[in-house]
Amino acid sequence: MLRSCIFERSDKLKCLGENFQPFVFAMGVLRFQRILFRSSVGSSGLTQAALTLLLIICCSTQEYRAPPFIPNISFLWVWNIPSERCAINFNVHLDLNLFSLVGSPRKTAKGQNITIFYNSRLGYYPYIDDKTGKGMNGEIPQTGNMIKHLAKVRKDIDYYIDVDTTGLGVIDWENWRPIWIRNWKPKDIYKNLSIELVHQQHAELNDTEATMKAKEDFESAGRCFMETTLKLVKELRPNYLWGFYLFPDCYNGFKDTDYNGSCPDIEKKRNDRLNWLWKESTALFPSIYLSSKFKSTLKAALYVRNRVLEAIRLSVVHSVKHPLPVFVYTRPVFVDIDLKYLSQEDLVNTIGETVSLGASGMVMWGSLNISQNVQSCTELDNYMKNTLNPYIINVTLAAKMCSQALCQDQGVCVRKHWNSSDYLHLNPDNFVIQLESNGKYTVQGVPTLEDLQQFSQNFYCACYANVHCMERVDMSEVHTIKVCVPGDVCIDTFLNSGPSGQPSSWKEKSATSSSTLSAMPPATGSP
C-alpha cells in the first residue's frame, strides 16, 4: 500500500494510507577481432500448429521499452562530467556533440537539463557525514524534520531547475539504504542509532524487541523521506524524469573465481520490497562503474549484464506495457585508479552490454580529477576523439540500424539470448569510422543483407510503449537505411546497390585528410 508521510505537532513521523494525496505538501572470451557473420538459419521443420502456438505465445508475451525521452533519439547519451573547466581554464574544447544532454555535477551549476542532487543539495536529508562523523539534519530518518525538509526541497528545485524545462533529475542519497539489512558496515551506525532511539522511547523492550521495532521505524521513515521527496519534485518539475542514483542495485560484485555476475536471489527479493520506489520513480538510474579488477575481463561483461537486466526487470513494476526508462550510469575511468581510462574492450563490456540489452540511455559521470589541469583535460580530449566517441558512434548507429530493419523505428533491438556475447556493432568488413581534418566524424560504408540478417538472428524487437509494432522477419524487404547520430554522422544508403563493402553514398567523405579510427569489434558467442 502506498503511503505518504507528515509530521504531527510532536514532530514524530507518521505515515498515512493510500488515500493521502500530495496536496498536503503544497509547501565466450571477448576478444578484439571481426564480428563473425553466420549463415542463414535453416528450415525448422515445425508444423503449422506449432508455429501458430508459438505466435500466440509470442504475442501474449510482447516485451516493451520506454519510448525515447527526446524524439528521434532512440538511445540517450548524457554527459555529467565537470569538464567545463577544460575550456574555461585550459582552452581545451571537448567534442560533446554526441551527447544530447550536457551538464556539470558541480554545486554551482544550475539551469541544466541533467541535474544530480547530492545529500546537501536537496532539502534536509538526515545522514551522518562519512568523513567527520557529524550527524546532519537529525542523523537518521526517524528524527528528521519532514516539514523543513520539504520546504527546503522547494527552494532547491527552484534554484537548480528552471520552470517548464525538460531533463533528468537524479537524487543521489547514498549514506543509508532504505532496506534495514543492507546497512552493513560502516552503515550499521544507522541501525545502532535506531535501536538506541527505541530504547530511549521504550525502556520496557528487550534488545530483540527493540531491534525489531527499530527496523520497522527506520524502514518506514526512510521510505517516507524518499517517497515523499519524489512526489514533490515530480509535482514541481513534471517534465523531468526522476529517480534515485544506484537504484536498483543488486550487489553482484566480484568475489569468487567462478564468478558469473548473477544477482543473488536474496537481493532480488529485497529489490522487490522496494516496489513502492519503482512505482513512484519515473526513471531508473543503476550504476555499472568498473573497478580495475574487471579490466579487460569477461567478468566485467557479466557484472554489467546482470546489473542492467535487474534494472530492466524492475522497470516493469510500474507497468508492464509502460515500463520506466533505464538510464545507466557509467564512467570513462576506473573507480579505483585516477585517470586510468577504459579500453575499447572495457567499453564493449559496459556500453556494448547496456545497448544490446535495450536500455534507454547512459549517463557518463566523472569527478573533478578528470579536468584538474591542462594535462588531464588533454588526455580526456584525446581519449574522446580516438576511443570513446568512435565507439559511441559505432554502437549507436548499429542499434538504430537494427531498430530500423527489425522494428521499423518503432522499438529497440534486444539480445535474444541474454547471456550471450552478441553485440550491436557495425560490421568492420563494411564500415570505417573516420575523424576528418575539420574535427568531424564520418562513417564510410554500407550494410549488406547479411549484416541485417545477423541482427535478425541475434536480436528481437521490443516495441515502444503506446506503439503497435510488428517485427520484420524477412530482411530482404529492407531497401533503404537512413540512421544518424547527433552531429550529423549518418549512414544513408540503398541496400544491395553495389558489391559488399562498397559504399553507395558516403557522407562528407574525405579520402586524403582523415584518420581511420574504428571498425570495431569482438567475436560473437556465449561466455
From TrEMBL:
It is found in: Cell membrane. Gene3D superfamilies: Aldolase class I. Glycans are attached at residue 394. InterPro entries: Aldolase_TIM, GH, Hyaluronidase, Hyaluronidase_PH20/Hyal5. This is Hyaluronidase. SUPFAM superfamilies: (Trans)glycosidases. GO terms for biological process: carbohydrate metabolic process; fusion of sperm to egg plasma membrane involved in single fertilization; hyaluronan catabolic process. One of its GO terms (molecular function) is hyalurononglucosaminidase activity. Residues 499-527 are annotated as: Disordered.
